[in-house]
Amino acid sequence: MTSIFLLGYTRTMKTIWAALTEPNRVHIVELLRDGPLTVGEITERLGLQQPQVSKHLKVLSEADIVEVQPQANRRIYQLRREPFQELEIWLQSFRRLWEERFDRLDDYLLELQATEQYTSNRIEDTNV
Amino acid sequence: MFDYQSLSPRVGEQEFVVERRFNASRTLMFQIFTQPENLKRWWAPQPYTIPICTIDLRPGGIWHYCMRSPEDQDHWARSVYSEIVPPEKLVYISTFADEHANPIDGMPEHLTTVIFTEEAGKTQVSARVQFASTAALKVAVDMGMWQGMNMTWDYLVGYVQELHKS
Known about the structure:
The structure holds two protein chains of two kinds.
Chain A: H1 2-12, H2 14-20, H3 23-33, E1 37-38, H4 39-46, H5 50-62, E2 66-71, E3 74-79, H6 82-127
Antiparallel strand pairs in A: 1-3, 2-3
Helix pairs in contact in A: 1-6, 4-5
Chain B: E1 15-22, H1 26-34, H2 36-39, E2 49-55, E3 62-68, E4 74-85, E5 89-97, E6 110-119, E7 122-131, H3 134-147, H4 153-165
Antiparallel strand pairs in B: 1-7, 2-3, 3-4, 4-5, 5-6, 6-7
């Protein structure tokens, strides 16, 4: 099951990840966590030029991280939940991968030690 | 709209630590983590196997392996060791790769630190996994809270099935 998550990642999450690796875009996402904002409000809080902000918002919206709500003559940006749920699920799956790995390691150790026990018993038998 | 009321104050889980105590010396545990013939036996998630695994155990050296699905689909991963202190510590950076150990573009790298601590013949193994884009992941985890931590296994199973269909 965990492995399926890892493969699922390769198909669906490359764009999300790429979009979120740029610091200004992460900053925008952090701002939008507190609620929807207009381009003007985002520009003001980031202290960047509006064309730059618009460029970042374009990338975020192409990655389906944000969506636009036209409201009268303003464009309000807000976060979409799904990409973040995917990231969260992926992270949890990674942790689970390690838990399961440790389970298998436990079994493997028992196997190793059983063989060792068997071998040392044999040696003792031979000595007798 | 999101339910902002359910936002959790919990922050900063861009990394995780998984620990387990094993009934073996740390010399043995270190070997089990660093020798291909050992790793092939337990490293791959079920039902995958590891038909190929090579390890160049030195700082800057590469650990490259193939995970094969029951349908004979191969997925390669590679890690580059950054620190090796036998039998106490291993640090490496991992990502998905091709069969020639070239990393696949756009995949996140993650840093793993494995610490082996021996106590009365048993060994505590602690694996810390950190993602390269920690800022991004921190945001991701915070936002995951909107869904709440009540995400059940059933939900995950459904999600996997969806992924499988797409």
